[in-house]
Amino acid sequence: MRYKILLATAALGIALTACNNQPQSNPNDVETPVTVQELALGSISKLINTTGTALATYGVELTSETSGYYSLNKNPATGQAYKLGDHVKKGQVIIRFEDREYENGIAIDSKKLSLEIAEQEQNKQKELYEKGGVTLSEMRNTEVRVLSARHDLESAEMNLEKMNVLAPFDGVIVTLPHYTAGSRVASGKPMIGVMSYSKMYMDINMPESAIEYIQLNQPVKITHYTLPGDTIAGVISELSPAISTETRTFKGKITIDNAGLKLRPGMFVKADVVVDQAESTIIIPKDVVLSNRNRKYVFIVEKNTAIVRNITVGLEDENNMQVIDGLRESDNLVIKGFETLRENSRVKVLK
Fold this sequence. Notes:
Radius of gyration: 41 Å
Shape: elongated
Helix content: 10-25%
Order of helices and strands: HEEEEEEHHHEEEEEEEEEEEEEEE
Largest sheet: 11 strands, antiparallel
Number of helices: 4
Distance between the termini: 66 Å
């Protein structure tokens, strides 16, 4: 029995020795596949987000100022009758009313002739007055008749203009109720809606916590889900100093430059107010930043080796953050495969 125990012990010792003599693999010798991004200088902005409805700066709904027989004019730009979406110029006659009885009652030609006669009489009286043929009072009476005749003519012209519905400014037709051509339409009926939305605005309500950041003339980035990739420029144009006791918000207004007419009146849009920004700085994706207590760090690659870099961060937006200290331009930042890396891990950079 003693000899068997000795043999077993010897065999176990040989086996252990053999195992200890075999080479052991070092975890740091295993190459972890990673993807890197060479860092370059960029810009980043600190944003405060809000939403609202974009509205046209100029908009009007016109009604008929007199009754008459309806006639929709032709658009000189298309040769067809005006329709929804047509661009109009200030002063263009969109709709015309016909009513001979109304026009005869205005008697525009008669009032023009009355003014002409009154002016001729005034000139004669001035000549006589200079020669001593009439008194000052007689000469001034002719001035009164001229003024009266001129006022009568101006009133007649204004009444005649009521038969035309004109574009009040350059814009786009947004409403155009249908009336049968030649039908009689009463006064006060809706005729046309015109908007100009190359300049737009939106009312905003900002949380009380943002009052120290939001200021007049700050730039704003306007986006809408129907315009992927497009950002339209705006600016904070008005701010109220008062905080609502019910909502704990304060009001403001954003002016939007919509020169390309990409936004349409009534669109619900997102507004990102740029409250701070940094230019020519290191920008990295937020999702590659690791943290341990108060320490933030990332991995970079040098000579196929993962190196830990502690970083100090600054501004952040939705996807990126500014690195104030810890990284340099042209560092190769690990953006994929960093989750399992350790200091001095061997890596294989994937193309």
